[in-house]
Amino acid sequence: MRDTPPAGFVDLATLHPRQRAVVVLRFFHDYTEAATAEAMGTSVGTVKSQTFKALAALRVSAELRKDLPPDLTVSAPEGTLR
Fold first, then answer.
1. Alpha carbon distance 57, 16 (integer Å)
2. How many CA atoms lie within 13 A of 64 on its CB side?
3. Domain 7-66 belongs to what topology?
């Protein structure tokens, strides 16, 4: 039987690829803003703004999910992350 991924991972899959990259590098790999900017070939300011936008989107997603009845929170059909 396949376990469903945690909701946070499903939420990550909904982010724009650059926002997802920033979140993964900053919070999963503990990169600094400067190291993230260097790895992505962008500026520290862009890393900051993309982090802000990504975290805002994840908060909204969590808030929306919180309001759903339990039977509607099943997130993704098997084989997908959305």
1. 10
2. 10
3. Arc Repressor Mutant, subunit A (1.10.10)
Alpha-carbon span 35 to 76, nearest angstrom: 33
Q: Which amino acid is at 74?
A: V
Cα–Cα nearest to 26, from 7, 5, 54, 58: 54
Q: How much is the pTM?
A: 0.69
The rounded distance, in Å, linking the Cα atoms of 38 and 46 is 11
Residues 20 and 51: beta-carbon distance below 8 Å: no
Q: What is the DSSP string of 12-25?
A: HHHS-HHHHHHHII
**Tens-digit pLDDT profile for the chain (82 aa)?**
456 656 566 778 889 999 999 999 999 999 999 999 999 999 999 999 999 999 999 888 877 777 666 665 555 555 544 4
